[in-house]
Amino acid sequence: MNKRNNTQTITLIGAGLVGSLLAVLLAKRGYRVEIFERRADMRRKDISAGRSINLALANRGIVPLQRAGLMEKVSPILTEMKGRMVHDLQAEQNFQSYGQKEEEVIYSVSRSELNKICLDAAEQTGLVNIHFDNKCEQVDFKAKTLMVKNEHNGQISTQAFERIIGTDGSASAVRDAIHNLTSKQLEVLPLGHSYKELRIPAGPKGEFQLDKHSLHIWPRGGYMLIALPNEDASFTVTLFMPSKGKCSFESLDSKEKLLSFFNQQFSDTLPLLPELVEDFFANPTGQLATVKCSPWHYKDLALLMGDAAHAIVPFHGQGMNCGFEDALALVETIDANETDDIDSTWQAIFSTVDSSRKSNGDAIADMAIENYITMRDSVRDEKYLLKSALAFELERRFPSRFCPRYSMVMFHRLPYADAKSRGIIQEEILTKLTAQIRSIEQVDYLLAEDLVINKLLEVNLNPE
Questions:
Q1: Confidence of residue 50 (pLDDT cuts 50, 70, 90)
Q2: What percent of the chain has pLDDT over 90?
Q3: Which of 357, 373, 389 is the last residue of a domain?
């Protein structure tokens, strides 16, 4: 990586996680960065309460943070999660490990605290200027200008740009501008389910009231409750359920109905949620949707990253991780196109990132929806648990060929599209091997070896 000594400026729309980390990575390469962010500066104003579920940081997100030199600052705000703790209706708990190696863990992290670290690091480069409370309303590629609205006074200003990257989320103004000119695909697919954030505080002596190294799940078929640990011994709790219908956010319209529902479905959480009623009715109901679009770029002028290109539902914990991968893919592509005339290569850079990341964005979007079904229902199923145990055993026996799909996604950097396609083959193998059995001891391992060797090629799980 060479740090360029140039006067070129890249404009980012959105100073969320992906935008702020990308700004750091670009500044390390000598680029000046201007960011326009519609929200206030979260370091000076609390704007996050109830508006974002806790995030799971995995290997795909850790590597870009390492490349940005930020993991030393991020590590103290991480809480290790080794697996799922499944809570049934009888308040019994069943721990399901995410992996079988010591390092195969994920980390609970506060979205806002991580964002603040990235914002600080961006500004400390001396090359990044962030304009908070400035919403991008419109992009004019012909004039190479932005129409920006000041959220304080409503004034509209026109800002020039050289190149623009949309890191402005699922309702991206940059995406709208690109697709007003050229669009092969633009799908915004509502899930029909929403979420509400709640909170389990620390105990009376400052202790964790649930196991601190687990992601807790209360799966109930059509809906579920999850809880992720925080370093202050609290848990960020999120209720996922249909937006409308007989049992939905729409139906829980009174204190009595809410308490009755929790008493029936999540009774063991009631002593842990002293502010359930207040939080439920005060906190916003978040909407869940998937965005799939193409193209992700426009000529040599614009590129989409993160949720602007591929918003996904949060059930595989990969939205942030995938966005961080996007950012790293961009700067690595820039590094690979070192030239005295970098201006002439921008269209190739943007096109390369678009073509290499699009299939992966679509793949993780699909897997995230599938994992919602797994989390809210399948984790209780005996056949699912048998397949999971067998997947670990096949990984031990055939480590160069078989890796559970969850592990491929969370603990490795194999492209999402490859993880999805290998996962389909592996599921077929697991289904065949467990069709007529009820325990791991009954597995036909000669058949297993034949299936694995013949259907799965050897794989490098962490390609550079």
A1: very low
A2: 90
A3: 373
Query: Do 18 and 46 belong to one domain?
Result: yes
Q: How far is CA 85 from CA 15, 56, 219, 278, 317, in A?
A: 34, 15, 10, 26, 16
376 and 223 in contact (C-beta within 8 Å)?
yes
Q: 274 and 338 share a domain?
A: no
pLDDT in tens, 172-221: 999 999 999 999 999 999 999 999 999 999 999 999 999 999 999 999 99
Please report, for the domain that includes residue 184, its CATH number. Answer: 3.50.50.60
Q: What is the pTM of this model?
A: 0.94
Residue type for 87, please? H
Where in the sequence is the domain holding 418, given as residue range(s)?
Answer: 381-455
Q: Are strands 106-109 and 55-57 parallel, antiparallel or unpaired?
A: antiparallel
* pLDDT confidence of residue 49: 47
Strands 235-242 and 185-200: antiparallel
Half-sphere exposure of 19 (CA within 13 A, CB side): 31
Contact 10, 33 (CB under 8 A): yes
- Based on the domain organization, do 276 and 410 belong to the same domain? no
